[in-house]
């Protein structure tokens, strides 16, 4: 028996395992549900193990399936990276960065020109997503996510501290002044599904855990909540230093200087198969260098006694 399982079956297994659905895998790969089911069955028979539990029309990876998925993803990523590098001109290296939208828009993109000046032969491909890296549709060289996280098959390191503070437009603040946390009761608070407990955590640390805002607006992504704050629709719990440039430019203001709530750090995440790549290492070092040049908090005069320690982050 060959030691190489059917490669097409591996590709289908990876999609079905990542999406936790035969139907979704079929849609992604443009095949039928029956074709996916047949390939998975053939792979299980070839391996002599069960990769999925099937119950009530749903599928779930077995423990063996989870372990196999990690190794298969590493192998497919290695093939994809090798192919990408092979197709690049000899003097050019393509680096795929997968970042959350807010990080990409407000912190990474304004700084990429610095990296490009030092590495002009590196072609950057920036992809944005809020999904966990295990559920991404395409491989990456470096991902940027808030951590710490459970990222088997990868190496990761924190490189940027983040804190939260209420931010709003100058025009909104002029109409409805905010001199204390209690004044937020007359405002619309802007919520993001990706940070569901952020406001309650901040209000608790500010001493007003029972505060009821005048209204609430909810968004599926934080980048939309931040844009709503820019448009004067309400008060966002702004991440700093993500939104530091918006504060520095006067587009947003921080009416309250405390509590400044530290939350989860941003981490760079690299597949183990790419850990020896010198270009990947250069980009990770650059991220750390850039973050070291940031001011950790927005307002002058803040001291350690004014910085609250957060609850365990969501």
Characterization of the model:
This protein is of the alpha/beta class. The chain contains eleven helices and twelve strands. The strands form three sheets. It has a five-stranded mixed β-sheet with strand order 4-3-5-12-6. Strands 9-8-10-7-11 form a five-stranded mixed β-sheet. A two-stranded antiparallel ribbon has the order 1-2. It is globular, with a radius of gyration of 23 Å. The protein starts with 6 loop residues before the first helix and ends in a 22-residue tail after the last helix.
In terms of topology, how is this protein built?
Layout: H1 7-19, H2 22-29, H3 33-47, E1 52-55, E2 58-61, H4 63-87, E3 93-99, H5 101-108, H6 112-118, E4 122-128, E5 142-146, E6 154-160, E7 163-167, H7 170-175, E8 188-192, H8 198-205, E9 215-219, H9 222-230, E10 235-240, H10 244-248, E11 261-262, E12 266-271, H11 278-292
Parallel strand pairs: 3-4, 3-5, 8-9, 8-10
Antiparallel strand pairs: 1-2, 5-12, 6-12, 7-10, 7-11
Helix pairs in contact: 1-2, 1-3, 1-4, 2-3
């Amino acid at each position: 028996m060959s030691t190489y399982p059917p490669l097409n079956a591996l590709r289908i297994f990876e999609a079905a395992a990542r999406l936790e659905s035969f139907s979704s895998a079929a849609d992604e790969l443009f095949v039928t549900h029956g074709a996916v089911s047949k390939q998975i069955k053939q792979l299980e028979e070839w391996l002599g193990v069960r990769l999925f539990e099937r119950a009530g029309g749903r599928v779930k990876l077995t423990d063996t399936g989870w372990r196999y998925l990690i190794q298969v993803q590493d192998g497919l990523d290695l093939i994809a990276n090798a192919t990408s590098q092979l197709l690049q001109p000899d003097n050019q290296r393509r680096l795929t960065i997968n970042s959350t939208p807010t990080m990409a828009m407000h912190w990474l993109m304004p700084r990429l020109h610095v990296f490009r000046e030092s590495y002009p032969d590196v072609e950057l491909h920036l992809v944005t997503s809020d999904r966990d890296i295990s559920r991404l549709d395409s491989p990456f060289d470096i991902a940027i996510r808030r951590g710490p996280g459970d990222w088997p098959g990868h190496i990761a390191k924190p490189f940027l501290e983040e804190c939260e503070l209420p931010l709003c437009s100058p025009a909104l603040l002029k109409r409805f002044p905010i001199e204390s946390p209690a004044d937020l009761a007359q405002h619309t608070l802007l919520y993001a599904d990706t940070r569901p407990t952020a406001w309650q955590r901040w209000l608790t640390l500010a001493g007003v855990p029972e505060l009821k805002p005048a209204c609430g607006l909810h968004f599926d992504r934080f980048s939309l909540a931040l844009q709503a704050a820019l448009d004067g629709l309400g008060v966002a719990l702004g991440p700093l230093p993500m939104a530091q440039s918006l504060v520095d430019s006067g587009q947003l203001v921080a009416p309250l200087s405390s509590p400044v709530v530290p939350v989860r750090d941003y981490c760079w995440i690299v597949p183990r198969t790419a850990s020896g790549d010198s270009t990947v290492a250069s980009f990770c070092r650059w991220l750390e260098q850039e973050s070291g040049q940031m001011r950790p908090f927005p307002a002058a005069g803040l001291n350690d006694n004014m910085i609250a320690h957060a609850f365990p982050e969501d």
